[in-house]
Amino acid sequence: MIVKTSPDEFQDFIRDASNFTGNCSAVYIPQTPDEIPALLTGANEKGIPVTISGGGTGITGGRCPNEGIVLSTGHLNKIITIDNIQGIARVQAGVILHDLQCALDQQGLFYPPDPTETNCCIGGTIATNASGARSFLYGPTRRFVKELSVILPDGTPVTLKRGERTASPGTLILPRAGGTMQIPIPEIAYPAVKNAAGYYLHYGMDAIDLFIGAEGTLGVITEAVLGVLPRPQCLISCVAFFPDSNSALEFIDFARQSGNSVNNIEETTLQPRALEFFDEHSLNFLRTDFPNIPETARAAVWFEQEATSDTEESLLDLWMDLIITTNGLADDTWYAADAAAMQDIHTFRHAISAKVNEFVTSRGLRKIGTDTAVPHRNFAGYYHQITELAAEAGLYYVAYGHFGDFHVHLNFLPKNTGELEVAQALYDKICMLAVSMGGTISAEHGVGKAKKHLFHKMYGPGAIAQMQIVKSILDPANILNRGNLF
Ligand SMILES: Cc1cc2nc3c(=O)[nH]c(=O)nc-3n(C[C@H](O)[C@H](O)[C@H](O)COP(=O)(O)OP(=O)(O)OC[C@H]3O[C@@H](n4cnc5c(N)ncnc54)[C@H](O)[C@@H]3O)c2cc1C
User: Fold this and answer.
1) Do the bridges between strand 69-72 and strand 50-53 make them parallel or antiparallel, or are there none, so unpaired?
2) Can you give the pLDDT at residue 275?
3) How many angstroms is it from 215 CA to the middle of ligand 1?
4) Which of 60, 116, 273, 350 to mutate to test the pocket of ligand 1 (most atoms within 8 A of CB)?
5) Alpha-carbon separation of residue 414 from 89, 409, 418, 445, 456 (angstroms)
6) With 306 labelled, which of 65, 177, 410, 421 sits at a CA distance of 20 to 30 A?
7) How distant, in Å, are the alpha carbons of 77, 287, 301, 400 from that of 282?
8) What's the 367 CA to ligand 1 centre distance in angstroms?
9) Looking at ligand 1, which atom is closest to the CA of residue 73?
10) Is residue 454 part of a domain?
11) Mean pLDDT for the stretch of residues 196-217
């Protein structure tokens, strides 16, 4: 175990990509998972909080400690096996997503979850049930987690294989030092949208699902078996530009409906795996770095679709038809004809999120950006209302995100602490507006420390108390990721 006790050595471990900053007394870096149980047992005995650190790309302060010690998974970074036949990869929690993607690519495979920033660790993506552009077709991380090795807060190691340990139906039994523990599973009213806020608690649920998206509050994930898929033969990846946002939203609606109506994966019809929107402010914010953004463009949509060499051309024609029908700037469309151009489009998508984080960090501020999703029926009204609210407040912002999933990142770009305060108040209002429309305060980033107050308002005291009971049974001394969620 490597231990860093000098603040100079551990500065990188106490903040995350949102510029949320915490403090700790030391950072512990186990070389093998076997070193973790004793660390947790000792922390329990002494009542020392332990905060788990992955890649630090989170944007809710989840891995930033308030106090105590940090447990970094940075050296648990082995890709143990990739099994082409079974379509699985066994990895340690500290494996960087980018490294896994490269290793899979060499074997003609890919891992669908792709949360834009690939410097994250697999453990962090599981702890946050991360999504990303491809989640439009494939859903979030949860769907691809087949097995987890977890060290519970009392130091007990457990291995959970999907399908082997389920609640019956309202109680889940897990091992604990010297016996078992019974966890009551309440029925919580979750919003019917993509949602990453709070524990996954459902009657008859699989035990593995309790730890996915629990933001490290219930156990340390050390190893995972992930489902992987054959890499598609061809991939259509384009950015279509539009003269106004309504045309871009109409394009997304048509493409989504087409995707939903597909019964057969082989059908030659539009079936996007990603549908990502950029508003006018986002394009303006990116113009210096991407001078090829067309001058007349006021909105854009990045879409991807998997294809075969037989279907690629006809699918591309269908996409171009849709761009023309919805008033798009067809001649200005970026089409990725090779791997390098495809990477350029990914860089473009990554740049908008990364530049927002850089903007706030360079001013010593904290990121204030929504991660809200609302049901389809309310999305257009919600989007127009929140952009009007931001404009009325006189705040500069960029709005983009996973609009295929009715999921929007409206990020404020405050110039000073005064504007930051106005943005914070408006952010809270926008989040609660999503909740009032049947949506969520977090569709993919999680709650962490930054959104606790909204998380509690979203579910109300009854459901929060039920989630807290689960936490207190697994972690009675509240040592693990203290300050996240509760
Ligand atoms: C530019 C940019 C774009 C992004 N885009 C997306 C996106 O499209 N979709 C999306 O979902 N997210 C996105 N994110 C957020 C982020 O990448 C994800 O939340 C990621 O899953 C976090 O992984 P990490 O390893 O960096 O975790 P960290 O930031 O280190 O930690 C995140 C949380 O997970 C916990 N944790 C970490 N490892 C473990 C473990 N082994 N066991 C238990 N708990 C653990 C931490 O304690 C913390 O609470 C983006 C971030 C950036 C900077």
Assistant:
1) parallel
2) 96
3) 9
4) 116
5) 42, 15, 8, 21, 26
6) 410
7) 35, 9, 12, 7
8) 15
9) 41
10) no
11) 96
Domain boundary among 362, 382, 408: 362
Residues 456, 447 contacting (CB under 8 angstroms): no
Assign 473 to helix, strand or coil.
helix
Tokens encoding 278: 């950029």
Q: Any bridge partners for residue 227, and if so which?
A: 88
Residue that has been written with the tokens 């512990």 in this structure: 28
- Taking the centre of ligand 1 as the mean of its atom positions, its distance from the CA of residue 63, in whole angstroms, is 8
CATH of the domain at 428: 3.30.70.2740
Q: Is residue 175 in a domain?
A: yes
Decide which of 229, 259, 275 is a domain's last residue.
229
List, for residues 151-162, the tens digit of each pLDDT value: 999 999 999 999
Determine, yes or no, domain membership for 197: yes
Question: How far apart are the two ends of the chain, measured CA to CA in Å?
Answer: 30
Tokens 């609606």, located at residue: 253
Count of CB atoms situated within 10 Å of the CB of 134:
20
Does residue 461 belong to any structural domain of this protein?
A: no
Co-location of 282 and 302 in the same domain: yes
Supply the DSSP string of 17-31, one letter for each residue: TT--B---SEEEE-S
Q: Which residues line ligand 1 (CB under 6 A)?
A: 16-17, 51-59, 62-63, 73, 93, 115-117, 120-121, 123-125, 127-128, 130-132, 215-216, 220-221, 350, 353-354, 357, 444-445, 448, 481, 484
Task: Please report, as a single letter, which amino acid is at residue 153.
Answer: P
State the distance from the centre of ligand 1 to the C-alpha of 370, rounded, in angstroms. 16
To test the pocket of ligand 1, the residue of 120, 145, 367 to mutate (highest count of ligand atoms within 8 Å of its CB) is 120
Residues 217 and 321 both lie in one domain: no
Domain, as residue range, for 440:
372-445
Q: What's at 50, amino acid-wise?
A: V
Tokens of 177: 């030092």
Q: Residues 254-309: pLDDT tens digits?
A: 999 886 666 555 567 899 999 999 999 999 999 999 999 999 999 999 999 999 99
